[in-house]
Amino acid sequence: MNLVGKILTVLIFVMSIVFASMAVMVYATHRNWYDVVTRTPEKTPPGQKPGLKFQLQQETDRRKHLELELARLEKQLVEERQARDTQVAQLESTVGQLQQERDQREKDIQDFSKRLNEALATLEVEQKNLSNLDEERLRLVKLVEDTQKARDAAFKDSVAAADLLHQAETEQRRLETRLTELTVDATRYRDLLRLNQINPDADPASVLPDVDGRVLAVVGGGLVEVSIGADDGLKARHRLEVFRNAAGKSSYLGRIEVVQTAPDRAVCKILPEYRKGEIHEGDSIASRLN
After folding, report:
1. DSSP per position, 203-261
2. In this structure, which topology does domain 208-286 adopt according to CATH?
3. Are residues 171 and 246 in contact, defined by beta-carbon separation less than 8 angstroms?
4. Cβ distance 189 to 200 under 8 Å?
5. 131-163 confidence digits (pLDDT tens)
């Protein structure tokens, strides 16, 4: 074997070692992508996420739920606005009717006053002729009596109209005062809700009460059992914060969502997107962080 053959033999040996090393590295870094995509939550090791297929399904379900909740809240807002507009329209219609009645009563009073003045003028003219004709006097007396009756009737009508007008004005002032009070109360209540970090347009059933407790057990499969339940105001889909107090320090661990409630406890699932550490038995929970 000449020198060139020896060199080629050494090169072949070296390349064999290189390719063998590369094959070992490729095998060591190999990843089962089918398992990454289709792995079920039951087969998921602790601290890892389920397969991409199940993650996609969970996010799709969550999105559909949020879209339905948004549509329901928008529909409720529209109904409340329509109810408010209907009440305002009814109040405005009532005020308009009262104003029309007041205007009509004022017109009636003016007509009665005009008729009364005309009757008094006629009475004065007839009284001047009483000294000439007794017969005319009797006629005038009768006319005066008739005029007095008309005046009394007109006066009664005027008094009744004035009473109705006064009642209408009193009712209008009462309604205006009540409307102002309701507007002030509504504004105060909305401000009070915002100060307590509560959305005034939210469904009252979805508002999370101010609670705190601890983790009773880590069930597995991303579930934990906590020491507060339905008697404390918890409902499904309420979310709680998890933290741990140790050595005088508080560390945030993540967020959990209520899945099922009992009177004195509840089962919650750990939300992976908020997870900051491992959750253990005895960790503290609260509706909001101070």
Report:
1. -GGGPPP--EEEEEEEEETTEEEES--GGGT--TT-EEEEEEEETTEEEEEEEEEEEEE
2. Thrombin, subunit H (2.40.10)
3. no
4. yes
5. 676 777 788 888 888 888 888 888 888 888 888
